[in-house]
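agent> fetching stored inputs for the zinc ion docking request
agent> found them:
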Amino acid sequence: MRHSLFALLILAATPAVAGDIEPRLTLPAGDRSVALTFDACSGAVDDRILDELIADRVPATIFVTSRWLKRNAAAVARLAANADLFQIENHGDQHVPAITDQPTVFGLRTAGTLAAVSSEVAGGAAAVTEAFGRAPAWYRDASARYSRDALTLIGTLGYRIAGYSLNADVGASLPAATVARRLAAAKSGDVVIAHINHPERPAGAGVAAGIKAMVARGVRFERLDAAFPQPTG
Ligand SMILES: [Zn+2]
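agent> prediction call returned; pasting tokens
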């Protein structure tokens, strides 16, 4: 009796997203680089990070939503002016998780249906294409988690799913020193995720410091399009 009650409590404490998938991504075997990926979900731009990337000519892949693009014209211009550094990809239209089997995840209301997933992907793609003149080829949804049907659909739409192997800032929630330490632990082949849309939080200072330290120790950085060339023909 005690045992079953305990088991029930454990079950109740398990995140509601247990059935969904959080894809892991590393660079292809033998690739000695590190891929930095940033999410621009909503809100503003973290110039501490953007300044550091541009100053040290560090290439990165940036996942933007349509709503972030609309509110950050100056940052969009800086990204476009440094097209040799920045690969811009699709983070959705309104930052809605591509999940159909749970009502919410991390406090975000999920898409709920495949039609809503499809419109979220299409809206993000249209905004990226309009702002940068190039259609995105990679997708990362708002939660970096997906229901299986959504994952299949997004694949059918021709996207590669941008998982990751090292979470540097846990949604820009960590103290700067912790973020810098997590970045310092990046190994060859890691795909790092962090956020570039929270200038008001300490995490971004740690991202900038962490990148500076990686540059100083000679880490080679690579964008996802260079690490995973599209098959030709
Ligand atoms: Zn996001």
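agent> quick read of the result: The chain has a mean pLDDT of 92.
agent> awaiting further instructions
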